[in-house]
Amino acid sequence: MNDSDLRPGEVAVPPPQGFDASLHFIGVIRTPWQQRRDCPRRGSADGPDCRIELDPRWQQALQGLEIPSRVQVLYWMHQSRRDLVLQVPASRGQPLGSFALRSPVRPNPIASSVVELVGIAGCTLTVRGLDCIDGTPLLDLKPEHGLAKG
Amino acid sequence: MNDSDLRPGEVAVPPPQGFDASLHFIGVIRTPWQQRRDCPRRGSADGPDCRIELDPRWQQALQGLEIPSRVQVLYWMHQSRRDLVLQVPASRGQPLGSFALRSPVRPNPIASSVVELVGIAGCTLTVRGLDCIDGTPLLDLKPEHGLAKG
Asked: The domain containing residue A33 runs over which residues?
């Protein structure tokens, strides 16, 4: 993308040189939505079942996840530009800072959703409440509440 | 670290070759706790004020954050190993999967805390409810609720 994609009032900044840490994609999220414009604005427990396909390398890490339970899903919004500091949401018409929005556009496009985990079969989790596009890379799963430290 | 650091029942797996995405550290978190063993088990709104020092590059992205408000903070647990799939929390004595714990030890050591934002001065945010060590790298700030999509 380039600045011609900016709406009036939006501001991009030059990104930092280089990066500071790196991520493993640990699985992929399967949803009914092929493009961002198809996605619901916010996931709902009344929404369709979605699948999280975990890389088998990490399967043992699922041990002890309860069904049903509420699970926090972190994922990578791989289609998002990262350089906007002010954005104009279509529903608002005036600029807001990226940290005042839950927009996918942010310096580190990590999304966080709390979903209902309704099933696990092997490396496939069935959840309700996601709102991301099909093929979104998975970063992490955590119980919504639970033991924080060892 | 190596396998001699594992408790009985803990299991490490070989990490994937290479990485899939990269992060910018966008600031640093200042807390009273210099080592992990000093940190509270869970942040509390009754806890001490902590500071988030945002890189000035991103300052405009704070525009519109409300004070007071509840803000989700994502940060990087830079001291954590990433290869454990089963962990034995000291408080439990039996192994649990890393995705069934909110332990810092996980394939992508991203933490998520919801804090009370009580002040902003320039690039410095004052918040209550963190539980991480001093010097922790910041990844993202989001309103706990709010506009999701543009």
From this structure: 22-143
Would the CA dihedral through A115, A116, A117, A119 be positive or negative?
Answer: negative
Q: Do B63 and A150 touch (CB under 8 A)?
A: no
Domain count, chain B: 1
Q: What share of chain B is helix, strand, coil (3-state, %, to 5)?
A: 10, 35, 55
Determine, yes or no, domain membership for A51. Answer: yes
Which amino acid appears at position A79 of this protein? Q
Domain assignment present for B112: yes
**A72 and chain B in contact, CB less than 8 A:** yes
Question: How would residue A116 be classed by pLDDT, with cut points 50, 70 and 90?
Answer: very high
Residue B148 lies in a domain: no
Instruction: For chain A, say whether B121 makes contact (Cβ under 8 Å).
Output: no
CATH of the domain at B99: 2.40.30.70
What is this model's ipTM? 0.94
B55 has pLDDT over 90:
yes
